[in-house]
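Render DUF3576 domain-containing protein in 3D.
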Amino acid sequence: MALGTLSQVTLSGSRAAVGLLCCALLLAGCANNTTDQNIPVGSLEKELAAGRAEGGTIWDLFSERDNPNTTVNVNKYIWNAALDVLNFLPIQTVDPFGGVIVTGYGTPPGGGRAYRATVYVRDPALDARSLKVSLQTQGGRAVSAETVRQVEDAILTRARQLRIQDGRL
């Protein structure tokens, strides 16, 4: 055997050893050393380890189960009124659980300046303190407090109208 052939055999043997070592490490990393003795009986951790907790498996992400106890802490009338009043603005982000509506730039009917709005509905009460509106112009400048107050008043007026209509049903 020539010297070049011997170094090739040693090099390929080294590659095989490194590959075998990597496979062994990967398999060892997949081992589950957690036993039922390490987890207190009846604990959430034990249920999660068994994959039986609510939402405990990947397949639960695709299930059609709705939790009937999920609540939204925003006033539905203010929420819908904000969407009605600002319907000329394109919606970018909506978070009904956090009570945030973020819109893109749009020009109001009959107006010449483009605005963008962020609406915060902070409380489930039909109250002016539940609503916070921030407006910006296309250039990024803040809008006058009077304009913001007029938009908030329009949203609250529409919310009251929706509440009255809902009471008649």
